[in-house]
Specification:
The protein is of the alpha/beta class. The chain is built from 4 helices and 5 strands; from the N terminus they run E-E-H-E-H-E-H-E-H.
Length: 115
């Protein structure tokens, strides 16, 4: 079991999922439960400012979340990534599907603009 918690907040048509701790393969229940709480949000903002660690299983969960958001017609955005994790998303080309922003405010502004 990993140490993962996810807080969900709504801001207009966006849901912010603030991730705390680790994202590994064992993080699926809290991450997917939080996504479920986001409900009909048009955009999902993943806030990684309190991320301590993410491994390949965590990257796999991001792919799963990306597939679910695309199927639901939602937009997936990320904020608070360290340079290390930005590089990993670039290497895996996830940065081509997940909009990466420096902070929540800029992500919410981008979420308000149709993709």
């Amino acid at each position: 079991m990993t140490d993962t918690t996810v807080d969900v907040a709504r801001n207009g048509s966006a849901a912010i999922l603030a991730i705390h701790g680790e994202i590994t393969g064992g993080s699926e229940p809290p991450l997917m439960d939080a996504y479920g709480e986001a409900g009909d949000a048009r955009s999902i903002v993943l806030d990684f400012r309190d991320l301590e660690y993410m491994n390949s299983g965590g990257i796999g969960l991001l792919v799963t979340l990306l597939v679910r958001t695309k199927r639901a017609g939602q937009r997936l955005l990320a904020v608070g990534l360290t340079e290390h994790y930005r590089q990993i998303l670039a290497l895996t080309r996830l940065d081509e599907a997940i909009d990466i922003h420096d902070d929540v405010a800029s992500a919410l502004a981008a979420a308000a603009i149709p993709a």
